[in-house]
Specification:
- The chain has 159 residues and is of the alpha+beta class.
- It has four helices and nine strands; from the N terminus they run βαββββαββββαα.
- Strands 1, 4, 5, 6, 7, 8 and 9 form a seven-stranded antiparallel β-sheet that branches. Strands 2-3 form a two-stranded antiparallel ribbon.
- The longest helix has 19 residues.
- It is globular.
- 23% of the residues are buried.
- The model has no long low-confidence stretch (mean pLDDT 91).
Length: 159
């Protein structure tokens, strides 16, 4: 499978068993594979950013952050594939290609991807969050360092 930045994927349950991090969003909701993930390819590491349909919940959080800080870089409410979704950068985590279950498909069978302008906006916000983390301000809910180290260890063992 050729994984590309800006496409939407689903992750295998196995990843959650291997990583065992309580701060990761659950993979199933009411029997459906959820959430879908916007993906950023960074060499052998993939960054998965959850997409949620729970707009009201996340809009309240965005509104509170906007009122308090004048900005919100951790959650974006945007239109993806014709539906309003919450793009949860705060819940991003690193993974490997072997944990991808499948690419999300459009009704015509083509792989789902976000439009280029939104892809750029997500990448800008993600890079900002990573820059803040490098300065000691962690805006991620998951322990991305621990998970990243675990994924890199898996790569070393498999090569």
């Amino acid at each position: 499978m050729q994984v590309k930045t800006g496409y939407i994927y689903h992750i295998k349950d196995e990843f959650f068993d291997v990583v065992n991090d309580d701060n990761l969003m659950t993979n199933h909701e009411r029997g459906k594979k959820r959430p879908t993930y916007f993906t950023i390819k960074d060499g052998d590491i993939l960054w998965f950013i959850p997409l949620s349909s729970r707009i009201e919940k996340y809009q309240r959080i965005v509104n509170k952050k906007m009122a308090r800080y004048g900005r919100c870089d951790t959650i974006m409410i945007r239109n993806v594939l014709g539906k309003s979704v919450a793009i949860l950068l705060q819940n991003a985590f690193p993974t490997l290609e072997k944990y991808i279950d499948h690419v999300h498909l459009m009704s015509d069978g083509s792989p789902a991807k976000v439009i280029d302008s939104l892809k750029k906006e997500i990448l800008n916000n993600f890079n900002y969050l990573m820059k803040m983390k490098s300065k000691g301000i962690n805006l991620f809910f998951t322990d991305i360092d621990k998970i990243g180290d675990q994924m890199l260890q898996e790569l070393r063992v498999s090569s």
